[in-house]
Amino acid sequence: MAILIVLAVIVLFVLLLLAKTVRVIPQARAGVVERLGRYSRTLTPGLTLVIPFIDRVRPLLDLREQAVSFDPQPVITEDNLVVNIDTVIYFQITDPKSATYEIANPVNAIDLLTVTTLRNVIGGMTLEQTLTSRETINDQLRGNLDEATGKWGIRVHRVELKSVDPPPSIKDTMEKQMRADREKRAAVLQAEGIKQAAILTAEGEKQSAILKAEGQRQAAILAAEGEAKAIETVFKAIHDGNPDPQLLAYQYLQVLPQIAQGDANKVWVIPSEITKALGSISDRMLPQAGDKSDTT
Q1: Residues 232 and 195 in one domain
Q2: Could you tell me the CATH number of the domain that includes residue 140?
């Protein structure tokens, strides 16, 4: 029984020794090895061996890019206005040894450094510049932080301003100004629309009047051409027929009732040629009437 207990203790000791000797480092992790309290080497991903009870592996460090959001910090602008700025820092550990021994709390140190740098940058800008120059502020913050954290084995990739909150009174003033600007733009757009509508209406009326006048002109031309053609045809027919005055007088007598139908036709003008023709007709008819009386 005692032998079994001894064997069990030996097995447990061997297992513990193996656990202390063999270490597996995951991907994107790094381990710092201290031998008898002093830095020995940095473990990379994979299987590695250490000396039990002599080498000590510190907690593994994450080598991936990390994003840390800090609480909003009050910052005074150049025009003496207090704004609360919320920032996000994207950083990555590039040197595990420096990140382990050069700084005690990297995240807290980056937070304090960000606040100090942010106050220096925003302190030289007005509120309007702060609200409209986020890219510039991000670049300045990233450059200053990366320069300061380089000796800690940390690289700052990006700095983003999540929000910039001015005082409530300034917010109300800005909202009123934006509302006034929107109303002004709406009024300008409405006036421009009315102007364009009036221009289009006037242009349409102009085109309509032009087309109407053109139509009337074409109608008058066609009517005149028709009348001229009719007169030419009548004249040609009369000329070809060579009518005598008696025929013309007879035709005139047929037209007289049509002339008399008009209300405004109070006075008739009879050409002298027609009267002569009528006289000749009457002269011809009188002898015929005398002859008939004699026979009776």
Answers
A1: yes
A2: 3.30.479.30
Cα separation, 5 vs 3, whole angstroms: 5
pLDDT digit string (tens) for 134-168?
Answer: 888 888 888 889 888 989 999 999 988 888 888 77
Low-confidence ranges of the chain (pLDDT < 70): 171, 173-174, 234-235, 237-296
Q: Cβ(18)–Cβ(50) under 8 Å? A: no
Contacts (Cβ under 8 Å, ≥6 apart) of 157? 65, 90, 91, 92, 142
For residues 25 and 44, is the Cβ–Cβ distance under 8 A? yes
Q: Are residues 79 and 161 in the same domain?
A: yes
Q: Is residue 291 part of a domain?
A: no
Point out the domain boundary residue: 242, 261, 277.
Answer: 242
| Full-model pTM | 0.55
Question: Which residues, 6 or more positions from 21, have their beta carbon under 8 angstroms from its beta carbon?
Answer: 49, 50, 51, 52
Count up the domains in the chain and report the number: 4
In 10 A of CB 176, how many CB atoms? 10
Q: Are residues 89 and 159 in the same domain?
A: yes
In terms of phi and psi (left: phi > 0; alpha: psi -120 to 50; beta: otherwise), the region of 186 is alpha
